[in-house]
Structures are given as C-alpha cells and as structure tokens.
Design a protein that fits this description.
This protein is α/β, with parallel strands linked by helices. The chain has one domain: Ribonucleoside hydrolase-like (Inosine-uridine Nucleoside N-ribohydrolase, Chain A, Alpha-Beta Complex), CATH 3.90.245. It is built from 13 helices and ten strands. The strands form three sheets. It has a six-stranded mixed sheet. The protein has a two-stranded parallel ribbon with strand order 1-2. The chain has a two-stranded antiparallel sheet with strand order 6-7. β1, α2 and β2 form a beta-alpha-beta unit. α4 crosses α5, α5 packs across α7 and α9 runs antiparallel to α10. The longest helix has 14 residues.
Length: 301
C-alpha cells in the first residue's frame, strides 16, 4: 500500500515467497491489495514455496489464517505471471535502463536463488534493502528474527553477495507502534484504504503458549520502504554482519559486530570473512509513523 501510493517509488514487479503464510496466499493477498488501491497492472509472480533447506513452515498464528490479519477482501481478477519469481526478477533487472533497488520484505529465498542461478545480474542491482535480522533480540527465537530464522542459508547468500545492503531489523521494526487511538481513527475512516490499514494494525493474535492476546499495532515491514524514501529519519551504522547457520538454538541469529576495536578473533586470525553492510540502528519514530500514515492520506496523524 505504501509503495504503490508513494510518488518516489516506481514498482516494477512484486514477487512472493513462503514465510508468514504460503506463497499462494501471499500472491492472492497481493492481488487483492492492488485491487483495493486501484493500482495499474503490476506483474506478480509466485516464488519459493519453502526455504532452501528447512521444511515448510509459516507464522499464521501471528498473521492470521491467510496471512492478511484475517481481513477479508474480494477475490481479484488479476492474473499471476506464468513465470517463476526468479525469472520475473531477472527479466526486470536485465530490461531496466538503470540499476534497480530490491526491497526484500520476507525470507530471502527468491533473491538467493536469483543470485545463484543468474550471477550476471548483480551489476543491474543498485542495492538491496531488506527487513530481516536483528541487532538485539529475536522474535522467532530468543535470538533469531523470523525471516532469517525461516531461511538462514538464503540470508547468508545475500549477506555475502558483495552487493550494497541495508538491514532494517526486528529491533527497529517492533518499535514502530502506531497506538490504539490512531488504529481506531484509521479503522473508522470512510476511506477503504484507511479502513484496511486500520484493520490490519488492529489484528490480535493469540500467544500459542498462553493464549493471551498479542496486539501487532506496528507498521511492520513498511518501515523498510520508509527508510528507502526518507533515509534522513533513520540512523545507520556500517557494521560487519553474519547469520548463524549451525544447528541449535542460535540458528538464524544475526551477529552484528559493534565493537570499536579488533578482538581476539582478529588477532588470532579466526574471525573469517564477514561482510560489512549498512544497519539501521535508530529512527525518529513519530516522523516515520507520520510519513507512513500520511502516505495513505490520513491528515489527522
């Protein structure tokens, strides 16, 4: 919704991946949202149905049965592209007159396959800005954010690609809380786009261990797009970042090296090769939320 309505974002394609829900649900939700926005024809393609190595799994308990916070929208007459997401990205990148930015909001399985199958397209990519990882705590596990935990090998391939990368992590995402009053204002609006946004923000999940409600009233992955169009609202640090691939409780954890001096791993030559990327470390929350809601046309925020 934010990407289609912001004047500085030119959406060329949307590719779907299994993660919060199945890839089929993700695609159907995408088409319904495009209808809601009365958007022009945007190619939408199905991608990976499962991680590279791990078994299929989803986060339906936190995102609703079909991945859209149990918000029901009419079925769409739009068609899914008859090619795989990897092929759609390849065509878009090679056919563009200038380098393109990839915004990755789910597990990075599609992008990892693109980089492995078609390494010749790396010169067509300006940057990848992704929602994934965390410099502090996780949500899928105590230390791992969901997108990295869901497919750590895909995250590793992207992190080690040598491309310009910006990480918008869980620690920043979860701080972007809209608040009950603004959620109610959006939900009560006569504008159908505001209504859907409000209903998505108002969705309550049930904690699987206790059954207590979990209110997910943050703008979520949309903050990644806010960082694209208004980087002045965010603090960014250049840091070595890697993801844990080993089995065990740390699998999928993002390791962000914030040390100001070399450690014993460097002195004894055991650190290995770790890519340095841009990490969003802070944000002007009120200004970011105003940008998001303002883009949807709500002047009351």
């Amino acid at each position: 919704m934010f990407a289609m309505r912001h004047p500085d974002i030119d959406v060329q394609a949307i590719t779907c991946v299994a993660g919060n829900t199945s890839v089929e649900n993700a695609a159907a939700n995408t088409l319904r949202i495009l209808d809601l926005l009365d958007a022009p024809k945007i190619p939408v393609a199905l991608g990976a149905r499962r991680p590279l190595i791990e078994p299929p799994r989803d986060a339906s308990w936190i995102h609703g049965t079909h991945g859209l916070g149990d918000v029901e929208l009419p079925p769409s007459d739009r068609s899914i592209e008859p090619v795989h997401a990897v092929e759609l990205m390849r065509r878009c990148l090679l056919g563009a007159e200038a380098q393109m930015t990839i915004i990755a909001l789910g597990p990075m399985t599609n992008i990892a396959m693109l980089l492995r199958l078609h390494p010749e397209i790396t010169g067509c990519i300006k940057q990848i800005i992704f929602m994934g990882g965390s410099a502090t705590v996780g949500n899928a596990t105590p230390v791992a954010e969901f997108n990295f935990w869901h497919d750590p090998e895909a995250a590793h391939i992207v992190l080690t690609s040598g491309l310009p990368l910006t990480m918008y992590g869980w620690d920043i995402l979860w701080s972007m809380r809209v608040g009950a009053q603004k959620v109610a204002e959006l939900s009560a609006s006569e504008n159908p786009i505001h209504q859907v946004a409000g209903r998505l923000l108002a969705f309550e999940a049930a904690d699987p261990s206790s059954g207590t409600p979990v209110i997910y009233d943050c703008i979520g992955d949309a903050g990644t797009l806010c960082a694209l169009v208004s980087p002045e609202l965010f603090g960014v640090e250049s840091r070595p970042v890697q993801v844990v691939l080993a089995p065990g409780p740390a699998r999928g954890q993002t390791i962000v090296d914030r040390r100001s001096m070399a450690g014993e791993d460097t002195a004894h030559n055991t650190a290995g090769s770790v890519s340095t990327i841009d990490v969003v470390s802070s944000a002007l929350n009120d200004e970011v939320l105003a940008l998001f809601v303002g883009c949807l046309g709500n002047e009351a925020f």
